[in-house]
Amino acid sequence: MKKTVSVLVVLLLVIGIVPMFAAGAKEGTDAGKIKLRFLGMAQAAYSEKNVNDMTDDFMKANPNITVSTEFVPYEELRNKTMLAYGSNNPYDAVLVDDIWYAEYASKGMLYDITAKVPASYKEGVLAGAWNVTTKQGKVLGLPWFLDTMYLFYNADMLKKAGYTNPPKSIEEMVDMARTLKAKKIVEYPFVFSLAQAEALICVYANFLEAFGGSFQDASGNYILDTSGVKALEFLVSLKNEGLLNPNSLEYLEEDVRRVFSSGDAAFTLNWAYMFALATDPAESTIAKEAVKVMVLPGAKGVKDFAAMSGSMGLSVLNQSKNPEAALQYILHLSSKKVQDAYSDLQLPVWTASYDDPKLAVGREQLVEASKKAFSIMNVRPSEPNYQEASAIIQQYVQRALYGEITPKQALSDAVKKVKEIK
Amino acid sequence: MSKKTARNQILLTVPMIVIMGAVIGWPLIRTILLSFTDAQLMDSGTSGFVGLANFRNAITNEGFLASLKISAIFAFVVVTSEMILGTAVALLVNEPFKGRNLLRAFLILPWAVPTVVNAIMWRLIYNPEYGALNSLLTQLGLIDSYISWLSSANMALGAIIFADVWKNFSLVALIALASLQTLSSAQVDAAKIDGANALQRFGYITLPHLIPSLQVALVLRIIEAVKVFDIIYIMTKGGPANRTRSGSIFVYQEAFTNSRMGSGATYAVIMVALIMIFILFYMRIITKKR
Fold first, then answer.
1. For B244, which residue in chain A has the nearest alpha carbon?
2. What are the pLDDT digits (tens) for A312-369?
3. Distance (Å, whole) CA B16 – CA A12
4. Residue of chain B whose Cα is closest to the Cα of A81
């Protein structure tokens, strides 16, 4: 009996304890085969299928490497990357937003590839793109896509209202919107992604740029309480005038795309991926020819156009057990060949790709707009605690949009709170 | 009990103690230890001991206090609604009528739906452009135009509460129904003969019989509701303008978005301490029942 009990206890211990340690068993190489883990974003472009197809091609060319891919929504990407990094099962390669590079770099998470980037990449990729992945002189990733929020407009609606040309300034755009509403062509001419998320900051940042404002001064102090008020007053005025779809306050980019593609908005801001979907009859009810895209015009007398970067890069994490293989993998994903092959939804970062007339077929205006945007694009703050600062600004911008406090008060409070965390 | 049996009993509980110590005890101790430090999410062991500073900051942090208030409102409204609705439904399906068994089977469905699925489902129902709720209310003539339920600073929390009540009232109903099954019909019949009306029968016989079971349901639901995270995170992520940011969402943001594990742990410890009060109530009820 004593023996039976002892055996039972040992058995229970083995059943209970072993799986806990087995979960953290060493991964990496298995009989000479390298196993990599990649964390990407669940999005329209590049889609999960796109990335998995790219990965399959990589594995075919490198039979000794197996890559398993995982995808999460943008809102979870940073947290998942960081939590996995702190665990005993980190990813080897990850997709990184331009606003996260400074934070990851400050925590020593990114593998320095300065000396490992092939010359063809250094020379071939758009010069400005390297700013996204380079921190303090170190190249910490490969640019994967350059993007900004473009202004999309419905040309048919504008035509009905008597406009044949796109707006040349923010003020002209608002006049057009007023006419569209007055003529009952559309109830809410504008729809933006203003949910309490980074998307809200992206929209606000583009208008901040359009009104000549900026997040920080040269010393890195937040100055939105002075330079950012006009942009927020503008958004609040659109809401108060009934020009902005009130549902915008719960919308992210995909919601905005659906509203525009249903013909329920004349103007919106969204990333480049929207163009392909808004002109796809399976995804959109508005005529393909009516979908127009351009760089957001600036405020009259301030600037002609405005663009704020929403670019991303691919990086190898320092804890990868196979950093060279992971680098090989991200070099494949960002190669010109792969980017050209999957350029339907995402424009390549390679200068030479734009020399190929095929790239622009069917989307001449998008390619034209992107060339202009890339040359003027500004960036959101890139600093270790940006994520927290952004969360604070989101909250106060929303409070102003709800009319709880004035834009001036909202941004003063936000800057005060941001100072406390810095 | 022989000495040998007692020893065997202890031996057989060892695996469970070891497992619980590893998966519950150690994380809890680690969280408590972290709460006295200024640890960052990835600080490579550079954090320092800060004593009670995190706790002092926590009890004066407006954001945390606001989020606790949201958790309290959520828990109060959700649990009250579920108790009333659950009891009423249990009384209904306890009566004999055609299709009763089918209705009882359907009753478990909302509770069986995973919280994540429930949250996504209600997000679709509340959608301001094509949501079923707006369509229904418009067709009934109750509203003139579609309402943006989740982006309204005043309605977002109410919309989440409704979705949570829909999912969880059936648990209360099932517990109450199980209790009603043990109620002696002779007692009720005797009261009828004595001339007691339906309200009197409910107040003097049914409710006292139900109370011990409802107490258990009440405490369990309060514990769940106070620590609410998933349904809010999926439906609004704490927005708009932090109007639905519960205590648990605040803890998550502090620890993982703001990367402050030390103070995040402090907020978590305070939340656990608050929940412990209800757990003690629960233990007392269970002990009394025995």
1. A196
2. 999 999 999 999 999 999 999 999 999 999 988 789 999 999 888 888 888 899 999 9
3. 8
4. B256
What residues of chain A, 296 to 335, have a C-beta less than 8 Å from chain B?
A: none
CA gap A154, A139 in Å, rounded: 40
Residue in chain B nearest A6 by alpha carbon: B11
Which residues does chain A have within 8 Å of residue B22's beta carbon, measured at their own beta carbons? Answer: 17, 20
Amino acid making up residue A238: L
Phi, psi of A222 (to 5 degrees): -70, 130
The pTM of the full predicted model, rounded to 2 decimals, is 0.85
Check if the beta carbon of residue A310 is closer than 8 Å to that of residue A379: no
Structure-block tokens of residue B223: 């514990």
Size of interface A-B (CB pairs under 8 A): 103
- Tell me which residue of A78, A111, A107, A112 sits closest to A92, measured CA to CA: A111
Q: For an interface test with A, which of B38, B57, B151 has the most A Cβ atoms less than 10 Å from its Cβ?
A: B151
Task: Domains for chain A: give ranges and CATH numbers.
Answer: 35-147+310-376 (3.40.190.10), 150-308+385-421 (3.40.190.10)
Q: d(Cα A44, Cα A256) in Å, to the nearest integer?
A: 14
Distance CA A62, CA A328 (A): 10
Question: What value, to the nearest 5°, has the Cα angle with vertex A261 and ends A255 and A266?
Answer: 95
Distances A309 to A129, A131, A209, A343, A389 between C-alpha atoms, Å: 10, 11, 11, 19, 18
8 Å CB contact between B153 and B145:
no
A4: CB partners within 8 A, 6+ apart = none
Tell me, rounded to whole angstroms, the distance of Cα A23 from its chain centroid.
33
Helix A229-240 vs helix A407-421: angle between axes, to the nearest 10 degrees?
Answer: 140
ipTM score above 0.95: no
* A187 touches B at CB < 8 Å: no
Query: How far, in Å, CA of B276 to CA of B32, rounded?
Result: 14
Which amino acid, one-letter code, is at A17? I
CATH code that applies to domain B33-38+46-289:
1.10.3720.10
How far the first Cα of chain B sits from its last, in Å, is 21
Q: Does B47 touch chain A (CB under 8 A)?
A: no
Using the structure block, give the residue that is written with the tokens 């793109």.
Answer: A129
Q: Residue B45's closest chain A neighbor by CA?
A: A86
Residues of chain A contacting residue B259, judged by C-beta atoms under 8 Å apart: 82, 385, 387-388
The DSSP 8-state label assigned to residue A348 in this structure reads: -
Nearest to B253 among A9, A16, A391 (CB): A391
For A68, other C-beta atoms within 10 Å of its C-beta total 12
pLDDT digits (tens, 9 = 90+) for B79-105: 999 999 999 999 999 988 888 889 998
CA distance B89 to A400: 43
